[in-house]
Amino acid sequence: MNERMSNVMTRRDTLAYIGRVGLKVAYATLAMSVLDKVGAFEAWVDEVLAAELPKNYQTIAGTRIIDTSTGTAGITVSGVETGSATWSVSEITTPYYLRPRLPTPPTKVIKLTATSAVGGSYRMEWTVSVKPRDIGHFWFLVFAENLGGVTNNASILFSDTGSYTNRYSFGYNFTSIDEGVWRDVHIPFSLLSVAGGSPDPNATFTRLRLVFGAASTKTPTYYVCPVWVNRASKPVFTFSFDDKATEDFTNAYAYMQPRGLVGSLAITSGSGALSVANMQTMQSNGWSIHNHTHTHPSMPSLTEAQMVTEIETCQQYMIRNGLNSGPSAFVYPFGTADAASNAVVNRYYPYSFLANSATARQPLFDGIQDPNHILRATMDMPVSSATLIANINNAVNTGHSMNLYGHVVAAGAPTGQTDLTVFQTVCNHIVRLRDSNVIQQRNLETMLAGLNYPRRLRAA
Q1: Are residues 83 and 49 part of one domain?
Q2: Percentage with pLDDT > 70 across the chain
Q3: What is the pLDDT of residues 127-154, one digit of tens each?
Q4: Contact present, 274 and 249 (Cβ < 8 Å)
């Protein structure tokens, strides 16, 4: 099958072709962008890239085509693109900005600042060597400051020569939701358009240009990290339910299971009416179950010995009942922790989850930033479905993950519990995003062990 044919295939045709010949042959005959467009890129990573490796071997997906460790000296050409704003370009070695941290952090990133507030844009170009047909998507991280709550334009151009006669391009924006957070810039190659000449997808392209804009009266700053292609970086969305309520099974699980969604339970061994049999059923269908203590105390209020008793009593209950699917993470009662409780919890679990507002987002594109303080976003009343969906969409736009949690999913839920209609609306939105190949949906355990970007854990 040639490049021309693969570009005109419908989604159904492509999936049918993959089904007939398998991923290995499909990868050899179709452009990487075609596989990514139909959601087959990650399956290719699992089946083909890691086919000969032992079970649970973690592999790195993606190729770095621009390494900012070369600093400003690595920029082939730079200068004002449009407007009359002046700009400052420098190298940054501050550890916070050296992203992504996996597989290894860069030693430098590029800092770009508009130093006059009159508007315009600035371009930076790098020499690369990659064929368009081998690209499913471009991926890089940008930290933006001083956006001023307005749209600041950006774009990417990709050419076979420095003249940019034959080129692809794509425009995107930095807006208020990108202010002071790490933006996961994920650009599927299928969205790039032919912006000039007749670019040949089988030719080796040698130039990549990034353009960053400054709105009039604004002086934004951008910290630009290495650029990758084909790196697995989809946001991960999880559901978790605290305190072992029967509604976890009768309402949450019952609605999620037919839709292919999985979740997690944070259980207290000394309270809660959910039966062991129901928890075992949920576990056998992909849910993870986590230690939430024995009596649900605020951990910082306890002595060290009391904390040990709370953790170990629940842990022993889980072991006796074969509830062994959540060995990596502890979920704090009331979401409260301090240095002393972290020290005790870390003897048993490398990760711990807190409780946060409905807006809580979790950066996950280069591993867990703070293993003792993994954020969760509440679904409990009085949070509305519209608010939750807006927060989910903001997380997707910035490349962040979300851990959505609730208590007692029930119709007409009071404050502090999750309303069934709200929950179902959120589930339906997550299903649409998952089925559109925008996000991954996992339980807490596989979120931690399955994909700490960009490493993947092969299925057992």
Answers
A1: no
A2: 90
A3: 999 999 999 889 999 999 999 999 999 9
A4: yes
Residue 77 and residue 173 in one domain: yes
Q: What is the pTM of this model?
A: 0.77
How many CB atoms sit inside 10 A of residue 214's CB?
31
Whether residue 309 is predicted with pLDDT greater than 50 in this model: the reply is yes
- Shared domain check, 268 and 409: yes
What CATH number is attached to the domain comprising 187?
A: 2.60.120.260
The predicted pLDDT at position 53 comes to 45
Q: Which of 346, 351, 335 is nearest to 446 (CA)?
A: 351
* Domain co-membership, 310 together with 364: yes
Q: Confidence band (pLDDT; 50, 70, 90) for 51?
A: low
- Based on the fold, state whether residues 263 and 407 are members of the same structural domain: yes
Q: Which of 124, 35, 116, 29 is nearest to 75 (CA)?
A: 124
Asked if 136 and 188 count as a contact pair (C-beta separation under 8 A), the reply is yes
The alpha carbons of the chain give a radius of gyration, in whole angstroms, of 24
The alpha-helical segments, DSSP class H, found in 325-419 are: 339-345, 385-398
Domain CATH number, residue 420: 3.20.20.370
Last-in-domain residue among 194, 211, 229: 229
The whole domain housing 429 covers: 236-457
**Gap between the terminal Cα atoms of the chain:** 33
Token code pair at residue 288: 């993870």
- How many domains in the chain? 3
| Cβ pair 106, 68 in contact under 8 A | yes
Rounded to whole angstroms, the Cα distance separating 197 from 86 reads 31
* Tens of pLDDT, residues 219-245: 999 999 999 998 876 789 999 999 999
Query: Among 57, 77, 93, which residue terminates a domain?
Result: 57
Do residues 249 and 384 both lie within one domain? yes
Q: pLDDT tens digit string along 144-203?
A: 999 999 999 999 999 999 999 999 999 999 998 888 888 989 898 989 999 999 999 999
Yes or no: say if 264 and 254 are a contact pair by the CB < 8 Å rule. no
Same domain, 215 and 263: no
Asked if residues 125 and 101 have their Cβ atoms less than 8 Å apart, the reply is no
Are residues 52 and 74 both part of a single domain?
no
Distance CA 108, CA 101 (A): 12
Give the span between the Cα atoms of 208 and 20, in whole angstroms.
Answer: 36
Q: Is the peptide bond before 382 cis (omega within 30 degrees of 0)?
A: yes
Residues 321 and 279 sit within 8 Å (Cβ to Cβ): yes
**Residues linked to residue 378 through DSSP beta bridges, in sequence order:** 405
